[in-house]
C-alpha cells in the first residue's frame, strides 16, 4: 500500500494531462475510421469490431511509443522529432481540405478489425511522437506507465465522445489553438534537450522553458500567418468570381 501511495505521489500529472489532451486532439480521426470500417458489419458484430480493433490498435500504439521513447536517446532524433512535431502542431490549426476519406468497410468481423489496425498504424505517427515527447518529462521508470494510463483514460473520450468534443472545438476554437501551442511547447523542449545538441551547446538544457515558449509561439505565429493568407486568397477568389459574373 505504501508503495502504491509513493508511486501516485511521484506521478508527473502535467505529463498525464498533456498525453490525454494530445490523444483527444489528434485521435478524433481514429473514431471516424472505426465507425467507417465497421459500418458494413451486422449490428450484433459492430461492438465486437470496435472493441477488438480498438484494443489491438491501442496495444500496437503502446509498442510504438515504447520504441519511440527508447530511441529518443539517440543523438539528433529528439531534434528531428521536435521539428516534425512543430509541423504537426501547425497542421492541427490549419483549415482542413475538403476531401472524402476512403476507408474500406468489410462485412467480416476480422476484415473490419484489420482495417482499423492498419488505418490506426498509418494515422498514429503524430500521436506517437507527441506522446513520446510528453512522456520525456517524467522519470524513466514512470514513462511507459504514464503512456498506458494516458491512452486508457483518453480512449472513452475518443470512442464515445468524439462528436461532442468536435462540437466543443468548433464552438471554442481556442481549445485547438491551445493544443497546437502545447505541441509546439513539447517540440521546443525536445529540441533543446537533444543529446547531439548538448555536445555543441552544453548550456542548452538550461533553456528548457525558453525552448518550450519559443516552440509554442512559433507554432501559433506560423499557423496564424498561414490562416490569414488562406483567408486573403479566398477573398480574392470570391472577388474574381463576382467580377466575372
Topology (elements, then pairings):
Elements: H1 2-10, H2 13-26, H3 28-37, H4 43-71, H5 77-92, H6 109-123, H7 125-135, H8 143-160, H9 162-171, H10 174-192, H11 195-200, H12 208-244
Helix pairs in contact: 2-7, 2-8, 2-10, 3-6, 4-6, 4-7, 4-8, 5-7, 5-10, 5-12, 10-12
Number of strands: 0
What fraction of the residues are assigned to beta strands by DSSP? under 5%
Helix/strand order: HHHHHHHHHHHH
Termini Cα gap: 76 Å
Could you explain the architecture of this structure?
The termini are far apart. The chain has helices at 2-10, 13-26, 28-37, 43-71, 77-92, 109-123, 125-135, 143-160, 162-171, 174-192, 195-200, 208-244. The chain contains twelve helices and no strands. The chain is flat and about 60 Å long. Mean pLDDT is 75; it is low at 97-102. The chain is mostly helical and 245 residues long.
